[in-house]
Amino acid sequence: MPEPYSHLDANVNVGTRITMRSHHNAKIGTLLRMARVKAFNPELRRRALREYMAAHDLTVNGWTTLAGLRESTLRNFLNGDSQSLSDRSYELLASVRGDPVSLLRGEKPERLAHVEIPVRSYVGAGDEVVSLTDDEEPIDWTAAMPGLEDAEATQVRGLSMMPLYRDGDLLFHKRMNIDPMLLRDEVCVMQTKGRKRYVKMIQPGTKRGTFRLVSFNPLFPPIEDQVLSWISPILAMRRARWIPRRH
Questions:
Q1: Number of alpha carbons in the 13 Å side-chain half-sphere of residue 189
Q2: Whether the Cβ atoms of residue 223 and residue 86 lie closer than 8 Å to each other
Q3: What's the half-sphere exposure (Cβ side, CA atoms, 13 Å) at 199?
């Protein structure tokens, strides 16, 4: 016959009263915490991710590489092998283009406070970026794009980047700690070791660790074998207001 159970056999404080009320309060607390978590439909989130990838021509391998995320994490969720994607995974994926996480989830983005950032550089002849000194007044101020409140804004001047960018367009970018080869054939803002900045398409150079900077305008030949200090993809662009000329 088994020995009778005693509270002395349990790892509890005998001075603690365990009552129906305390059990009820713990249960209510759990339910309240659950209520604060928004329910979501995994299929709707998968659809939102696929639509986002299609809109920006992203592949699972390429996107996760840029985000610093394991490919299997995203692929398993899209295939239905996992039923959720962590907040951290969404943040890493969203950081590639600087978009809000809500856009990747297919949610209506929360209204953000209006933030303005200074325009302190412009793209001149030969796609070279001219930066103002700290003593100079900004060229202009512009409303930050959603999720890019800490980005830089560069203004396009002239016709050297037509037809991709027009005179007066604003390019939003921010420096990233990223391998330039992951941005091959992409339009980027970059600074060379010679402290010159350009907005050009990047390609491998003929020497190890160097890059070929290609202009859109055929009047400007490529700049060969450049060593880069930093690089930033164009995360967003705001078109200048176009006013037709009178004839």
A1: 25
A2: no
A3: 30
pLDDT of residue 207: 94
* CATH architecture of structural domain 42-105: Orthogonal Bundle (1.10)
CATH architecture of the domain formed by 116-238: Ribbon (2.10)
- Dihedrals φ, ψ of 234, to 5°? -75, 115
In the block, tokens 């209520």 appear at 35
Q: Which residue has the tokens 């001219």?
A: 130
Is the backbone peptide bond immediately before 163 cis, with ω within 30 degrees of 0?
yes
Identify whether the C-beta of residue 146 lies closer than 8 Å to the C-beta of residue 101: no
Instruction: Evaluate if pTM is beyond 0.70.
Output: no
Mean pLDDT on 225-236: 89
C-alpha distances out from residue 160 to 30, 66, 180, Å? 61, 29, 23
Bridging pattern class, strands 116-123 and 152-156: parallel
Ordered by start, the domain boundaries in the chain are 42-105, 116-238
168 HSE (CA, 13 A, CB side): 5
